[in-house]
């Protein structure tokens, strides 16, 4: 098989890139190792920056997002049994964020792709990218029980953190930077109306908790838990009791409880691979970088990479100019490091360290107090959370 752009991975990054290229008349093929059902059900992100919403609009994939996405004007911070609203429009000159689940973005993009897009092969597992330095890199993949090849002009590695694209970078050009946080998140989905109008980030007695939502009737909640926690050790009542304790404030507020329909544990890590391009292989999204989820940046970063990548490939297609593609890594990495810094700050400020001493706890509270006491500090949080300027 031959194509102009071989895309490895049918997550948000790969699917969005395929749409943007298809609309510009550039042919591509998407290889996704999992089944359609699996990728459409994988519970993950929910908070979209305005730039992410704009990119989905540009790709013609925002019809349901526009109808069903929930626009939020800020977040709530809870600590010391107090609640504090951070007003994004007031602090940023009008910016808001949108709550719309990653599962729904993937469903929307898959449906468009299967209706009129270039090929999207499920259960097609890429094994290796060969000759990325050449004019015709090749992706070897397994599909329908046999090994096949996809010969490309360019390869986009959008295969997430555990993918194989990064392996095609020779050791002498690769630099990677990583950090593992000493705690995990237990994420749950519950059939119960959200107990809040905006997301709550809480530094509670027993650790961090986050209240998010999926609709007027479905809540999404996260709880800091020790590494290697088994979700089966957390029956529903234990989860609700712990969430209620961590969100507790000295005011009239109750956490709605209901049936929990999904539970999973996620480790927390930061990781950046530099550079993001080698020859004709370009990495985008989690294939190149991971942030701890506390700042809700992973999906948004994947989308901003893809925007730059699509523009570079379209510029090359229209004018023969590779200037943008040549600057791809440098353009993306600036924003990646800023989002990593913000996610790290949010994570450290809100989670309890396993061996926390009283000094660390005081430092966390002092940071939170500064944000709620100073308009300048709150504006800094709001600017980062709602999304720093896009590279292009
Ligand atoms: P992925 O979604 O990982 O997609 C990669 C795809 O490649 C997958 O479908 C995979 O099956 C496929 N693949 C892998 N290997 C191969 C192979 N060899 N061959 C073919 N296909 C392959 N981000 C936010 O912006 N906001 C949030 O609110 C947020 N909350 C989060 C909460 C949690 C609990 C978690 C875990 C993450 C959260 N994120 C959030 C991060 C976000 O989900 C990821 O950053 C996002 O999924 C990245 O998209 P991607 O397309 O780069 O990678
Ligand atoms: C969600 C996840 C996050 O990590 C976050 O910071 C905000 C929202 C979510 O899944 O809705």
From TrEMBL:
A GO molecular function term, named singly, is: FAD binding
| Alphabetized Pfam families for the sequence | FAD_binding_3
By its UniProt entry, which InterPro entries does this protein fall under? Answer: FAD-bd, FAD/NAD-bd_sf, RIFMO-like
TM ranges: none
Q: Which domain of life is it from?
A: Bacteria
Q: Gene3D superfamilies, alphabetically? A: D-Amino Acid Oxidase, subunit A, domain 2, FAD/NAD(P)-binding domain
User: Which UniProt keywords are given for this protein, alphabetically ordered?
Assistant: FAD, Flavoprotein
Q: Which residues form the FAD-binding domain?
A: 2-343
**Protein name as it appears in the record:** 4-hydroxybenzoate 3-monooxygenase
Q: What is the organism of origin for this protein?
A: Streptomyces muensis
Write the lineage as a comma-separated list.
Bacteria, Bacillati, Actinomycetota, Actinomycetes, Kitasatosporales
